[in-house]
Here is the input.
Amino acid sequence: MSKVTMANFPELPYAVEEAVNRLRININFLGNDIRKIMVVSTMPNEGKSFVTMQLWRQMAQAGTSSILVDLDLRKSIMTEKYGITSDDGATIKGTSFYLSHTVGIEEAVFQTEIEHGDIMPNTDNVVNPSMLLESRRFEEMLEYMSEKYRYVLLDSPPLNLVSDGERIGNLCDGAILVVRGGETPKAMVKHSILQLERAGCPLLGIVLNRVQGAGSGYYYKKYGGNYYGGHYYGSEYYYGK
Ligand SMILES: Nc1ncnc2c1ncn2[C@@H]1O[C@H](COP(=O)(O)OP(=O)(O)OP(=O)(O)O)[C@@H](O)[C@H]1O
Ligand SMILES: [Mg+2]
Here is the structure.
């Protein structure tokens, strides 16, 4: 298994770090059967990737072996945003590559500088990933991961776009629903909860994210010369506006 370095991993302010820590502890209390967890939201841009990444980091840092799987197969920006590069200089192959090729899983899973924290990024975005997610290979991949790691955290596409979220939910032990404070209409959140129920995926909890002025949802901290979040994804929709 190769190793990657994440050059742009942000440091969180205390309140955000604490909020993620509480989430981690609550998940621990759910018991040993909750291993494959999807992080999902109703609409795009609510903070799924942010929550998945931070939760994964804290779990690994607490000594619990965890893998983060990027299932945003249509438009992942994870490697760019976090400055993920392979230590051996090779091109990173991730989720969609693994699912569509006959290669060993170690070709697409990477160790990181965070001990106990492995990652499967997605680098080749595909137009129609439903076939890949519906495949037996995807099911087997998740099974394999849940035996190898204590937590398999799945950064998923939003529920409102396509049926991928329901397929993923069907294969998971539970879901964390990320809701962007003050943005996502209540009726849509309710609909997402129904979708998860229909997929047979227990709702483990809801994260209210990006809450204006709450102190825990927002921050503006400099790291490595970039402003986290503002660099690749545009800063117009947050930072206290
Ligand atoms: N709690 C937070 N504090 C600060 N910035 C945040 C927080 N949550 C999300 N962001 C930022 O908001 C933007 C959107 O978050 P993110 O990419 O995690 O959303 P997403 O739900 O994964 O979006 P998509 O549906 O496009 O995959 C990103 O720039 C992210 O860094
Ligand atoms: Mg995302």
Observations:
- The domain at 4-221 is CATH 3.40.50.300 (Rossmann fold).
- The chain is about 35% helix and 20% strand.
- The pocket of magnesium ion (ligand 2) is lined by residues 48-49, 72, 155 (CB under 6 Å).
